[in-house]
Amino acid sequence: MKVYYTTAPDFTTQFTNNIAQNRIDFSSNRNGTKKLDSFYKSLDVLILDDVQYLSGKEKTQDFMYQIFNTLYNDKKHIIFSSDKPINQIKGVEERLMSRFQWGITTDIQAPNWEMRVAIIQKKLTEAGIEAPEEVVHFIASNVKDSIRTIEGCIVGIIADSVLRYNGEINLEIAENVIGRVVGTVRRAKNISIENIIYTVANYYKISENQICPESAKGNCLCKTGRNASCKRTYSPDT
Question: Going by C-beta distance under 8 Å and a sequence separation of 6 or more, which residues neighbour residue 158?
Fold first, then answer.
């Protein structure tokens, strides 16, 4: 199976460079983009990322339209992705837009915390780098928007550790790099019962004493709002 991944900007560059090098109108089908055309039409799976960047590029869109029709008629697979819903992309010809909408459309959300941790661990392993678990969790908690941003932070952290810290990776490096990439950084801190009680009380605008009175002995359990609960365990000596 022949699978090929590219982005719309790279696809456009391939197309325009091919025309510039050959200086022949591709509609003549003698040279020009013939080789490029043959390559794309020979694929079993075409994955084209960032299709929003085809906007306003009429000749490139026409080239993609011809490729799409050939692959579709040959029952091949075509996967497109964009940073917005297809119907919100402007400057794309109606005939190509309709092709985009023929298949199944799926909204891919940003990865959750567990997925981000798994991605970070995999990227570090691929790079042959070992990092403390607290650093992995810190990255996952502060970089939430996209896998690309996560990758950028990991590259920056590795570079800083090699150039400035003799290969060591710690929270200080992670905090500095993430601060440069995403801006706001939530500093790492220990999670304690006191922090939990404070956070819950602050969120629901109630006093900490309402959650767990100071005079309470043994176990203290209080529910408030939308079934939020906090359990505090006292030792026999308290």
Answer: 127, 129, 169
One domain for residues 222 and 154: no
Q: Are 174 and 154 in contact (CB under 8 A)?
A: no
Q: State pTM to two decimals.
A: 0.56
**Is residue 188 situated within a structural domain?**
no
At residue 225, φ and ψ (nearest 5 deg) are: 60, -135
pLDDT tens figures, 19-47: 877 654 444 444 557 889 999 999 999 99
Per the CB < 8 A criterion, the answer to whether 227 and 237 are in contact is no
Dist. CA 219–CA 148, nearest whole Å: 46
33 within a domain of the structure (yes/no): yes
Domain span at residue 216 reads 193-233
Residues linked to residue 4 through DSSP beta bridges, in sequence order: 46
Say whether both 129 and 173 belong to one domain. Answer: yes
